[in-house]
Structure formats: structure tokens, C-alpha cells
User: Fold these one by one.
Assistant:
Number 1:
Amino acid sequence: MPGVVRQHRIREQGRAFPHSRYDDPRGGRASALERNVLRYRAIEASLYLFYTAEIREFMLENVFPLVPVVGGAGTWETAAEARQKQLMRALVAAAETAGQISTEEAAAMAPPAPHDPKEGKKLRRAFGHAVANGMFEAAEADELVALLQYRNEVAHHIHLVMADVTRSYWTTNYVAYAAPAYKSEALDRLRVYRGDLWDRFGRISALYRSSFDHLLFEHAERVFEEDLVRLDRRIRAQIKDERKRFEALRPELSLSGTGLVDDLHPRAPWNFRSAGYEAQQTGNLTPQGVEICYRLFDLGKSPLAIAYLMGISLRAAQNRARRWRDAGGPDRARAELKRHSGIGRRVASG
């Protein structure tokens, strides 16, 4: 039951809601779906930290003591790390041959140790011994090492793991350029390795040391796993509801046949007040903008649809809906619309 990742695209045509810091007409208040997704990840993080600590301890307490003092398997490095090391050596050698760097600089730029120091040499040697003796295939060891490294993201960069669940323009832009740190499949994959760790170890030794830490965490683990199942079911239902809501809204976002196009488009610049000459728009509607908004209500558009069409907040659209009803709704006296042929250039009335 993997978690949900929210995708953010790089914007090439500006903000959908230019007068707000949020990429959503509802503002910054989290929806029920967003709250449940964040709760889901918080529980995942707790389980992930415990499971990685348990696996790490097992490798150090049981596998590492079997590593020969002299000879035997070396420190394990993943295929990606080996490739990175190879490329670094080639780049340094090419730069030295071309005379771009000195021999001393080339020596200083030698590839670093093939592992994260936080993982420790003992753990990497334990993995090397495990692969050499058939406890893991090389690809399996690569994956498990990557899963253990992801633990550092969860523990030390939790803000990056949660960052894609946001409405802030600044954060969405950041996530659009830098892929989300959250890995939805990580916990499920870690469960698989944790579940058969003891059976795998039986391939290289019949005796192992067991920790009682899992007994101390047992009750919390059961509650967390039950909550994940419950939240997963709720999140899936809420995603379906969100999709249905948007599909129902989609026809309302069409302006075909309304006449509100070109200079009468809901997002035309003269529909919004500015703080001064060539200043940024404030988001407050001009009389022309108010009339355009009211005519959208005349057409039966909902406040949410108008928020998307005009790039205003849902609250502002709801306030305009009340004023439109107070003015008589579709039976009100319509104001005259001014036509424009260019930026700020009025030519006729309509």
C-alpha cells in the first residue's frame, strides 16, 4: 500500500492565481485529503526509522562478526557508486592530461570513499560478506543499502520528504525543479527485506543474536500498521472524490459561446485594480471586473469555477456571489462593459 506523491510541473505561463501565494483557490488551509496524506507519511516515518535501525543492528551484530579479519570480502559499494567512482576517475584523468589541473590537484580530487560515512565501514563490510556468501544478491544488496540511506532523508530532511504536499508557489516551484524526496515504495520494500532477514542469514550461519527491541515497539507497530491501512483506504476514497469533483467542474471552465473572450476575458488586466501606473495588480476587481464576475454568475458558473476562471480566491468568489444575489441575481440591472483594442485602450461600449 504505497503512499501518494503529488506531482508539480514547471510553470511556463505564470501563476494560476497571480494575486495569491497559494496555487489553489481555497488558500493555504489544508484539505482533508492533504491532512490524511501527511498523517500517513508521519506514521510511515516512525515505522521506517525503527525498521532500518533493526536491520542495521542485525547486520552489525550477526553478519559483521563473521567477516574474516584478513582477506575475505571487501567493503561493499553499490553499482551506482562504482559507476560514479569510475566516471570521476576518468574526468580527473582527462583534465590532468589536458593540463587543466596539476598532478597534486588530481590526487586531491581522487574519488571519495564509496559509502556514506554515516553508514559506517563495518556495515559496508558486513554487506560485502553477505553478498560473497549468498545471503544477498548484488542487486538486492544495492537496493537494501539505498533503503537504509533513505532513512537519513527521513531522519534529517523530513521537510523534503513532506514538501510535495503543499499549496505554496515557492514550494511547488522548488519541488518542480527538484524531484520530491519522498519514496512511496520504500517502506513496502523494507518490510520485505526485514521479513526474510533471518531466513537469509540462515544461509551463512545457524546461530544469531536476537534483540528484544521489537517487543518494546510491538504495540506501537501494530497500531501504526492498522492506521496505515485505515488511512490508505480513506485516502484512496478521497482521491476518487477529488477527481469526480474536478470532472464535474471541467465543463464550467469553458467560455465557449459566452462572449467573454479576448478583451472581455475574465483575466483581462483591466478587470483588476493596480496600485499605480505600471504597478502590479492588487487582485481587487475594477467595476469592469465586477460586471464580468457577475455575468459569469448569470451563466450559472459556481464560485469555484469563477475562482479558477478569474484567478481569484474561492472566498473572494463566494463574497461576490452574495453581492450578486443581493443585487438581484440574473434579474439585476446589468452594467455596461467597456471594449478594449489593446492594453488599457478603450474603444467602445458594449
Number 2:
Amino acid sequence: MPEFFEDVARKWKSFAGKRRASNRIDENAVRNTYARWAPIYDRVFGYVFDSGRRAAVSFINELPAGRILECGVGTGISLPHYSRDHRITGIDLSPEMLDVARERVAEAKLPHVEALEVADAGDLQMADASFDTSVAMFVLTVVPDPRAVMGELARVTRPGGAVVLVSHFPEQKGWRGWIGERLAPLSAALGWHMDFDINRILGRTDLRLVDRRRVGPIGFFTLLVFERV
């Protein structure tokens, strides 16, 4: 496994170097990176993110039937797990990832998936309060402007609805911090902000944090649930 991380880091060195030089994530770099990952993304990262993804979807499936927006739907790996009572719209910045998602929907015959669209999560061309729940899984660490994404998730979610997030937030000490350091080459390859500060998305007046729990392998990720107020 360490050899894999090293190989990935070498393969994507130029992309990671550009990101570090600018100290921000470039939208085109993200799009180009995931275009390359699309054919193998599920095989490489499906297991790593599976428990966090399932925790978020399980929470959503306990909610009354409604319209769900999944930002960063990617290859659509989560789509088969949603309750068929929900109606799902998925967006992603990568057309190549969405091509994989559309194949998945067609092959698995998922009638609850209403739309899969190329869109910028930080600038959604959607009406206010048009969804009952919005969810972003492993997205905030790769977008150029996480605050803009949070604002859009809040805007398109109806009052009383839920905004659900799963992400990694760094720990400076302990074994989780040690693991985070070891995963740094892989995170750089994918354009993740492993140093993403959770305070960047907390404190909004239109979102009230109602649940926070560790999920995923060894509790490495965090599930956050907000109520739209």
C-alpha cells in the first residue's frame, strides 16, 4: 500500500505542485484530475469511502420521502443505496465521472434517479428551497470555495430540511493525525485539502448543527447533519 501512495504521488506531482503554489484548489485542475480517475475511481476508493457514504445515505433513508440533491455525485456509487421513495438529483463538475454514473443508473435500473447534471456546487443554477435534503460526501476538501458550496447547499434546501456532509477534518495529535500525515501523498494526488478547518463551514445562521459523529474506517471521517433554518 505505501508503494501505491508513492506511485500516485509521483504520477500527479505536477498537479499537486500547482495546487500548493497557489494555496487553493483550481477548478480546472480538479476537473482534469477526476477525468483521469473516472475509469478506476470506484476500484481504488470505493472501499475507503464506503462506510462514510453508507452512513450518510442511511441517515437520509430514515427521512420522509423527498427530493434529494447529491453534490459531487461522481460515479454514482451511492445511488443504488438510496430509498426508492426518494427522488435523486446528482451533480458533479466532471463529465467523465457522470458518464460512469449514467451507465450505473442504466444498468441497475434506478428509477428514483431523476437527473445527473454537470454543475458547479458553488454556483448552482437551481431555485431556492427546491430540495428537501442536500448531501455532499467527500466534496468540501476538493472544491475551490467551500463556503460558497455551503451557501448553495443551504440556499437550495427548504427550511426544515437537512444538509448532510461527510468529510475528513484534520487532527493535530494522536493516531488519526499520524494516519492523516501518511495519507498526505494520496490527498495531494487527488487535490484534497487534508488541512481543511471545520470552522470554515460552521457558524452559519441559516444552518443549525444537529448531529456530529465519526464514521468510516477507524473513525477517520466525520458525518455532520445540519437543519436548514
